[in-house]
Amino acid sequence: MKARGAVLSRRHAHSTIVADWGTLPAGTRVEILQHAHVIADGVVEEVSQSGNVLWLVPSTPTEKQVFLKSDGVQVRKA
Protein backbone atom coordinates (compact mmCIF):
# COMPACT_ATOMS: atom_id res chain seq x y z
CA MET A 1 0.00 0.00 0.00
CA LYS A 2 1.30 3.42 -0.90
CA ALA A 3 1.61 6.16 1.66
CA ARG A 4 -0.99 8.88 1.65
CA GLY A 5 0.08 11.63 -0.73
CA ALA A 6 2.51 9.38 -2.60
CA VAL A 7 0.17 9.06 -5.54
CA LEU A 8 -0.20 12.29 -7.49
CA SER A 9 -3.42 13.14 -9.19
CA ARG A 10 -3.26 12.95 -12.96
CA ARG A 11 -3.49 16.75 -13.20
CA HIS A 12 -0.56 17.36 -10.87
CA ALA A 13 1.58 14.58 -12.28
CA HIS A 14 1.80 16.39 -15.61
CA SER A 15 2.12 19.89 -14.17
CA THR A 16 5.61 21.24 -13.83
CA ILE A 17 6.99 24.15 -11.88
CA VAL A 18 8.60 26.64 -14.26
CA ALA A 19 11.94 27.79 -12.86
CA ASP A 20 12.75 30.23 -15.69
CA TRP A 21 9.69 32.41 -16.22
CA GLY A 22 11.37 33.94 -19.26
CA THR A 23 10.66 30.73 -21.17
CA LEU A 24 6.88 31.14 -20.85
CA PRO A 25 5.33 32.43 -24.07
CA ALA A 26 2.28 34.68 -23.95
CA GLY A 27 -0.92 32.65 -24.01
CA THR A 28 0.37 29.85 -21.79
CA ARG A 29 -2.18 28.69 -19.19
CA VAL A 30 -0.58 28.67 -15.71
CA GLU A 31 -1.28 28.48 -12.00
CA ILE A 32 0.45 30.70 -9.45
CA LEU A 33 1.42 29.00 -6.20
CA GLN A 34 2.49 30.39 -2.87
CA HIS A 35 3.25 28.14 0.10
CA ALA A 36 2.02 25.14 -1.97
CA HIS A 37 -1.43 26.71 -2.50
CA VAL A 38 -2.85 27.92 -5.82
CA ILE A 39 -3.50 31.63 -5.37
CA ALA A 40 -4.31 32.48 -9.00
CA ASP A 41 -4.68 30.92 -12.42
CA GLY A 42 -5.03 32.24 -15.91
CA VAL A 43 -3.10 33.01 -19.08
CA VAL A 44 0.32 34.63 -19.29
CA GLU A 45 0.04 38.03 -20.91
CA GLU A 46 3.71 38.98 -20.71
CA VAL A 47 6.95 38.17 -18.88
CA SER A 48 9.71 40.72 -18.28
CA GLN A 49 13.04 40.30 -20.09
CA SER A 50 14.69 39.43 -16.78
CA GLY A 51 12.10 36.69 -16.22
CA ASN A 52 11.34 38.03 -12.72
CA VAL A 53 7.94 39.64 -13.39
CA LEU A 54 4.86 37.95 -14.86
CA TRP A 55 1.60 39.59 -15.95
CA LEU A 56 -1.40 37.27 -15.76
CA VAL A 57 -4.87 37.56 -17.25
CA PRO A 58 -6.87 35.70 -14.58
CA SER A 59 -9.50 33.06 -15.31
CA THR A 60 -12.05 34.98 -13.28
CA PRO A 61 -13.29 38.30 -14.63
CA THR A 62 -10.94 40.61 -12.73
CA GLU A 63 -8.11 42.94 -13.67
CA LYS A 64 -4.68 41.75 -14.77
CA GLN A 65 -2.40 40.63 -11.97
CA VAL A 66 1.34 41.10 -11.59
CA PHE A 67 3.54 38.53 -9.84
CA LEU A 68 7.14 38.96 -8.77
CA LYS A 69 9.52 36.05 -8.40
CA SER A 70 11.06 37.82 -5.39
CA ASP A 71 7.72 37.46 -3.54
CA GLY A 72 8.32 33.71 -3.39
CA VAL A 73 5.57 32.65 -5.78
CA GLN A 74 5.98 29.74 -8.18
CA VAL A 75 4.47 29.25 -11.62
CA ARG A 76 3.14 25.89 -12.73
CA LYS A 77 1.87 25.09 -16.21
CA ALA A 78 -1.81 24.18 -15.97
Q: What this model shows, in words?
A:
- With 78 residues, the chain is mainly β.
- The protein has one domain (10-77): SH3 type barrels.
- The chain contains 1 helix and 6 strands, in the order H-E-E-E-E-E-E.
- It has a 6-stranded antiparallel sheet, with no helix packed on it.
- A hairpin with a 2-residue loop joins strand 2 (29-34) and strand 3 (37-47).
- It is globular.
- The chain starts with 9 loop residues before the first helix and ends with a strand.
- Mean pLDDT is 87; it is low at 6-10.
Helix and strand topology:
Elements: H1 10-13, E1 17-18, E2 29-34, E3 37-47, E4 53-58, E5 65-68, E6 74-77
Antiparallel strand pairs: 1-6, 2-3, 2-6, 3-4, 4-5
